[in-house]
Amino acid sequence: MDFLVALAEGFIGLFQQGGDVFVGLVTGIVPLLIILLTFVNALIALIGPERIDRVGRWAARDGLIFYPIRYMLLPFLAVFFLTNPMAYTMGRFLPERFKPAFYDAAVSYVHPPTGIFPHVNPGELFVWLGIAAGIETLGLSVVPLAVRYLLVGLLVIFIRGIVTERITAMMWARKNTASTTAVPAK
Description:
- The structure is a single chain.
- With about 190 residues, the protein is mostly helical.
- It has seven helices and no strands.
- The protein is elongated.
- The termini are far apart.
- The mean pLDDT is about 85.
């Protein structure tokens, strides 16, 4: 009998704990996210969506100097202003040969800035909050870790963008070679 009572108390305790976490989110992070989303939308309206679109077209230029723009600056701006998953739409201004690499960079960057800019990916905020809770338990500030995540994330997306662009170029070259050497069917 005691086993059933303990099992029932544990079962309902799980939901009580979930309710406590929910109340913490509603009184803590949710208002912050609403204010951040409002701020970002107001900033986009002030800057003008057409100016943000112009940055995408500028990043599509050829040349080594445009690699950091295409695979660091553009994904950062897209993730910051458009958030996940709308950030991927910024790739529409890039030529087809750059789209897979931009997507790889943008999709890889939706988590690293969450510690500083929680509005970019509220769906993954629980990951950052779990890490932050562990750091705070140690009595440390989470800000240095959040900044490191952001900076390392920029480096990683830069590398991923270049590598994915090269892989895409090789695959398209193979496809074009295969299609020109194919024997026509009789």
